[in-house]
Amino acid sequence: MGQVGGEVVVLMDVNVSMFGMRARIALAEKQVEYEYSEQDLGNKSSLLLEMNPIHKKIPILIHNGKPVCESQIIVQYIDEVWHDKNPLLPSDPYQKSQARFWFDLIDKKAFNHGSKLWETKGEELEKAKKEFIEFYKTLEGELGDKPYFGGENFGFVDVGLIPYYSWFYAYETLGNFKVEGECPKLVAWAKRCMERESVSKSLADPQEVYEFVLRKFVGSK
Ligand SMILES: N[C@@H](CCC(=O)N[C@@H](CS)C(=O)NCC(=O)O)C(=O)O
Ligand SMILES: *[C@@H]1O[C@H](CO)[C@@H](O)[C@H](O)[C@H]1NC(C)=O
């Protein structure tokens, strides 16, 4: 059990999940010790169903026996509970609203833009690629010349987006393009994030993600 000062922290997760990676990064940023519990989504455990009966999805953070579900909410929870170390959200209400806006945009768009690359072919795939790149260019525009989305320090929006970087190899291979050619500043940002141990140790191996995508989603294509 991940036990620190009477705290028991468990993360129910799946290694290739970009949502799970967010929780792992946030916990690492706060140096919280926890038990990592890899789940089989093909055969969900009774604990998973008990802890997240509504969505039946990972990640689930279990803090002293109580579940917190949904990665965005988990990251905010971690930031609030362990607030003394490496704050992720800014304290200024307006800046906070903006960080939440961008994280929410990522939640609404990023997964689907990626999936389209293996759900489509021909002209539709070309359109999907164009939209994928437009989306990441929009994010790149928001990043601007800052080192991180929130400015000088690694923060909330970085935690929300960087897990997708471990999926880029799958996107690029199946879509036959390179994100770096289109969004060099964004890829430079991703490499900067990867220099942080919290990120590098939390992200899945791109090859493993690619093989997961082939197994799980491709085949009908
Ligand atoms: N909005 C959720 C998405 C979580 C999610 O999609 N989890 C997937 C794995 S990546 C899952 O548990 N799927 C199980 C299922 O759909 O049966 C979050 O941000 O946590
Ligand atoms: C599903 O998981 C349970 C334990 O959680 C195990 O006993 C059972 O054999 C598993 N079933 C399959 C089909 O893998």
UniProtKB/TrEMBL annotation:
<dbReference type="Pfam" id="PF00043">
    <property type="entry name" value="GST_C"/>
</dbReference>
<dbReference type="InterPro" id="IPR045074">
    <property type="entry name" value="GST_C_Tau"/>
</dbReference>
<dbReference type="InterPro" id="IPR040079">
    <property type="entry name" value="Glutathione_S-Trfase"/>
</dbReference>
<keyword id="KW-0808">Transferase</keyword>
<dbReference type="Pfam" id="PF02798">
    <property type="entry name" value="GST_N"/>
</dbReference>
<comment type="similarity">
    <text>Belongs to the GST superfamily.</text>
</comment>
<dbReference type="InterPro" id="IPR036282">
    <property type="entry name" value="Glutathione-S-Trfase_C_sf"/>
</dbReference>
<dbReference type="InterPro" id="IPR010987">
    <property type="entry name" value="Glutathione-S-Trfase_C-like"/>
</dbReference>
<dbReference type="GO" id="GO:0004364">
    <property type="term" value="F:glutathione transferase activity"/>
</dbReference>
<dbReference type="InterPro" id="IPR045073">
    <property type="entry name" value="Omega/Tau-like"/>
</dbReference>
<dbReference type="InterPro" id="IPR004046">
    <property type="entry name" value="GST_C"/>
</dbReference>
<feature type="domain" description="GST N-terminal">
    <location>
        <begin position="7"/>
        <end position="86"/>
    </location>
</feature>
<dbReference type="GO" id="GO:0006749">
    <property type="term" value="P:glutathione metabolic process"/>
</dbReference>
<protein>
    <recommendedName>
        <fullName>glutathione transferase</fullName>
        <ecNumber>2.5.1.18</ecNumber>
    </recommendedName>
</protein>
<dbReference type="GO" id="GO:0005737">
    <property type="term" value="C:cytoplasm"/>
</dbReference>
<feature type="domain" description="GST C-terminal">
    <location>
        <begin position="92"/>
        <end position="212"/>
    </location>
</feature>
<dbReference type="InterPro" id="IPR036249">
    <property type="entry name" value="Thioredoxin-like_sf"/>
</dbReference>
<dbReference type="InterPro" id="IPR004045">
    <property type="entry name" value="Glutathione_S-Trfase_N"/>
</dbReference>
